Amino acid sequence: MNQEQILTELQFKAIRSSGPGGQHANKVSSKVELSFHIEASAGLTERQKKRVLLKLGNKLSKEGLLILQCDESRSQHKNKELVIKRFLKLLEKSLVVPKARKKSRPTRSSIEKRLKGKKIASLKKQNRCKPDY
What we know:
This protein is α+β, with helices and mostly antiparallel strands. It is elongated, with a radius of gyration of 28 Å. The mean pLDDT is 89. It has helices at residues 3-9, 22-27, 46-55, 76-95, 108-128; strands spanning 11-15, 31-37, 65-70. The longest helix has 21 residues, at 108-128. One of its GO terms (molecular function) is peptidyl-tRNA hydrolase activity.
């Protein structure tokens, strides 16, 4: 993943933030929307693109755009920094390949322990029954 290349491919849009704020909120566009086209990216290899599309499929629009928004701060610049950090963290998390699970068998002692426990439970329940004379 070429981070510098990806950062140049990001597109930003400033939008008016929702919620209360009085007159100032009606004049200022402090909410930042980040959009990133995964398939058109030159900063990702084909394998990485497939992995990201697979992992983030439910977060993509119909056009294949990943769209993130941030309106946590009153400052547009701060919101832009926050949304970039969030985007990079999301991208790195989606590129992590999980370790392959190795098949393993239970140890002999754990099998014996389990069977012993079952035997004890069985005897407990047998002792609850009425005696057969």
